[in-house]
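Lab manual, section 2.4: Encoding a predicted structure.

Procedure: take the sequence of the chain (128 residues), apply the prediction step described in section 2.3, and record the output as structure tokens. A sample record is shown.
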Amino acid sequence: MSSPAEPTVRKTPLVEMTWNGYALIVKLAGPNVGQREAPIIGAEVDAMVKSCGKAMKFMILDLSDVQFMSSLGLGMCINIRNAAAPLGAKPIIYGLTKDLRALMSMMKIERIFQLVDTREQLNALVRA
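Recorded output:
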């Protein structure tokens, strides 16, 4: 996928993906990501990751609308990261609630994702 002048947006009922030429922002619809949602979101994001290719420098999961995530949701996040990593994309999670941040810390997710709390931190991190 080439670098468009305007961001490319793909939106489904479960996920909105925005590609700006160097960062793929994956905003999950809330409030829950569980057994039903995880495989659907995973397949949609995987196709977009492949279309972005090596031009992708950042893969951002925006979880600001998510209140609950099952183990399948966590596995989906890891699978998305594993698809983006070989392309050289830095994986970032943004917008965690206090409870989700505690869950991510317990699962040691910060070892494979950079966790970012504010929009300002995110913007500073992904400046092209």
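Check your result against the sample. Strands lie at 8-11, 15-19, 23-28, 32-33, 58-62, 68-69, 90-94, 114-116.
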